[in-house]
Design goal:
The complex is a heterodimer of chains A (about 240) and B (about 400). Chain A has about 240 residues and is an alpha/beta fold. In chain A, about 35% of the residues lie in helices and about 30% in strands. Chain A has one domain: P-loop containing nucleotide triphosphate hydrolases (Rossmann fold). Chain A has eight helices and ten strands. In chain A, the strands form two sheets. Chain A has a six-stranded mixed sheet, with helices on both faces. Chain A is globular, with a radius of gyration of 18 Å. In chain B, a hairpin with a 2-residue loop joins strand 10 and strand 11. Chain B is elongated. The chains are: A alpha/beta (about 240), B alpha+beta (about 400).
Chain lengths: ~240, ~400
């Protein structure tokens, strides 16, 4: 069974009187430990797809199953749990999703360690365990020595590594990285992508949104989006080899 | 997310905006300060009244034309139109009454100094005319000499007893008994001095002189003069009975029809304390009302600043939601922040209020109080304010769409 399964997923936004069809019926399966890039011009629907996969948004119609859990299924009556409530969506985000954003999205006035602790706080994990787990996550991204620094005392690459540690800390089913190198110079980008590759080697499932072909090549599979539909879905040389 | 975590994070955000937080909670501080300050001051006064009023003597009550304290406007005419309480009424009352009590008639005057050789007292000295029964109802005791006698009264003698303050001013180095003092040019022979009695509400009770009532009336009476009758009951358990009998007889003497209320006032320790409590109760209500308005205004200030805070931290809310914060986590965080602000303000206000209220105690030389019940009521009011005005911003924060919030610059 696939780790992630989307069937005929659509998303329609109502902007004033106009209905914008961001997703027009997406079928997508991602297996455990896959490394998938999502590419496409802006407005092609890739961000909407990430929001739906990351449970920040719900589809207008279609089925979405994540790690055996039905997040959305419009064939099932709402009353019998065909659609998750806001709190249930928050729980899925907390337990199964690790977000890495282009703009890092760390809380500015707390230390790196505390930033990494946050998902564990919402998971209700006891303080002592929490600090150990957060330190371990920071160790994985090689930032143990900077854990008591606030984000503004860290370089861009270091901030992104803190964000990755935060994404990892809850052992999520999927790491969703939305343009993770978009705000970084090329040298730092390479370091971050090496880290992503390493995480994949360790068994994590990664979905990466990017518009840079070089970055997309790190993945084993590239999905191209155009006008709310999947235009192509193929293995990269790395995936074939 | 547990309470401790939320608490820490709200304290953090308050600390990060020190000036703003301080200005916001200033409103709460002022509101609480006025509640607690007034309540503490009144409690101090009440304590002091209840201990001081025993000086009147628990077994004594008074009959007079005007009430001890007049509440509300527009009723003064009702008292002023009453017939004066006269010496003749007094003599009749004494004739008719044979119960276990003594009845004293008194008249009070001030505004004239007492002179002795080249010295004189201030005008504020109280000049009191009394009947001999005064000995039993006044609570004063002789230090030297003798009391006012029946002969003094009947023969309108120019004799006088001096309070210790008067002795101190006029003749500290003399034996006062046998000296002669003058009031309005009339000579009075000093027949005794009173033991020092001390102060009540910061006012000396020893700044008085005592003379026979008849002499007093001859010198000071006008068409406005109305006497006071002091009735000292022998046994406490006969107090009510005696009071009823005195009232009954006085109504007869003054010809009050059965259907009408008394045309005089009965004042006792209990009635004084009642009246005092009525007055302080009204002040308390007013203080509570005004302070509550101030607190509501402060609450609006808190709501305003929390709305600003929610807008400023839209992105933070988005981040928190993306990593798994539920609506209720966000809601709790902002609600608690508002509550911490109000409670902090409440705490500062309570401390300042108690300090200010007890300054009254220090200035009046009575023991201080800690109005715990008002502190608790204050904290409850502040909690309600915090919840009422913190809820809307907190709900607004909790309802933010995570995608919109993450995109917010």
């Amino acid at each position: 069974m696939a780790l992630l399964e989307l069937k005929q997923v659509t998303k329609v936004y109502q902007v004033g009187a106009v209905a914008v069809h961001a997703l027009r019926g997406i079928d997508l399966m991602v297996e455990k430990n896959e490394y998938v890039s999502v590419m496409g011009p802006s407005g092609s629907g890739k961000s909407t797809l990430m929001n739906v996969i990351g449970c920040l948004d719900t589809p207008t119609s279609g089925t979405y199953i994540l790690d055996g859990k039905t997040v959305h299924d419009d064939r099932i009556e709402q009353s019998s749990n065909g659609k998750l409530s806001d709190d249930e969506l928050a729980f899925v985000r907390n337990q199964k999703i690790g977000f890495v954003f282009q703009t890092f999205n760390l809380l500015p006035r707390i230390t790196a360690l505390h930033n990494v602790e946050l998902p564990l706080i919402y998971a209700g994990i006891h303080k002592k365990d929490r600090i150990e787990m957060a330190k371990e996550a920071l160790r994985k991204v090689n930032l143990e020595d900077r854990m008591h620094h606030q984000p503004n005392e860290l370089s861009g690459g270091q901030r992104q590594r803190v964000a990755i540690a935060r994404a990892l800390v809850n052992n999520p089913s999927i790491i969703l990285a939305d343009e993770p190198t978009g705000n970084l110079d090329s040298k730092t980008s390479r370091e971050i992508m090496q880290l992503m590759d390493h995480l994949h080697d360790e068994g994590n499932t990664i979905i990466l949104v990017t518009h840079e072909t070089d970055i997309a090549k790190h993945a084993h599979r590239v999905v191209h989006f155009l006008d709310g539909l999947i235009a192509s879905d193929e293995l990269t040389p790395k995936g074939k080899g | 997310m547990n309470l401790h975590e939320v608490l820490m994070s709200s304290l953090d955000s308050i600390r990060q905006n020190k000036l703003r937080s301080f200005l916001t909670l200033l409103g709460v501080v002022i509101g609480m300060f006025s509640i607690i300050g007034v309540m503490t001051a009144i409690n101090v006064l009440q304590n002091s009244v209840e201990s001081n009023l025993n000086v009147l003597g628990t077994n004594t009550f008074f009959i007079q034309k005007y009430p001890a304290v007049q509440m509300g406007g527009g009723t003064h005419w009702k008292y002023r139109n009453r017939k004066n309480l006269t010496y003749a009424d007094y003599l009749q009352l004494k004739d008719r009454f044979s119960g276990p009590a003594t009845i004293t008639a008194e008249n009070w005057h001030s505004g004239d100094p007492i002179k002795f050789e080249d010295k004189q007292t201030k005008n504020s000295v109280g000049i009191q005319g009394v009947t001999p029964e005064w000995e039993f109802s006044s609570g004063y005791f002789l230090q030297s000499g003798r009391m006012i006698s029946r002969n003094d009264l009947e023969q309108m003698r120019n004799v006088i007893i001096l309070g210790q303050d008067v002795v101190d001013v006029l003749m500290p180095q003399y034996n006062p008994v046998g000296q002669t003092v003058t009031i309005r040019g009339v000579k009075f022979k000093v027949i005794g001095t009173l033991e020092r009695k001390g102060t009540i509400f910061g006012q000396s009770e020893d700044n008085v002189v005592i003379m026979p009532l008849t002499t007093h009336l001859k010198m000071f009476a006008s068409r406005w003069t109305s006497l006071g009758y002091a009735i000292a009951v022998m046994k406490m358990e006969q107090f009510d009975e005696v009071q009823d009998e005195i009232v009954f007889n006085l109504r007869l003497i003054r010809g009050v029809p059965l259907t009408e209320e008394n045309d005089f006032e009965v004042v006792s320790n209990t009635s004084l304390i009642d009246t005092f409590n009525q007055v302080t109760g009204a002040i308390k209500m007013a203080a509570l009302l005004i302070s509550s308005i101030a607190l509501v205004a402060a609450g609006i200030g808190i709501m305003n600043i929390m709305l600003v805070s929610v807008t400023e931290r839209t992105r933070e809310i988005g981040i928190r939601k993306s990593i798994g914060a539920r609506k209720r986590d966000i809601m709790n965080q902002f609600l608690l922040e508002a509550l911490v602000l109000t409670e902090l303000g409440a705490l500062i206000g309570i401390v300042l209020g108690i300090l200010a209220g007890n300054l009254v105690a220090v200035s009046m030389n009575v023991s201080g109080v800690f109005p715990i019940q008002w502190a608790i009521i204050g904290v409850i009011i502040c909690s309600v304010i915090g919840v009422v005005f913190g809820t809307y911003p907190a709900v607004k924060a909790a309802r933010l769409d995570p995608i919109e919030a993450l995109r917010y610059e």
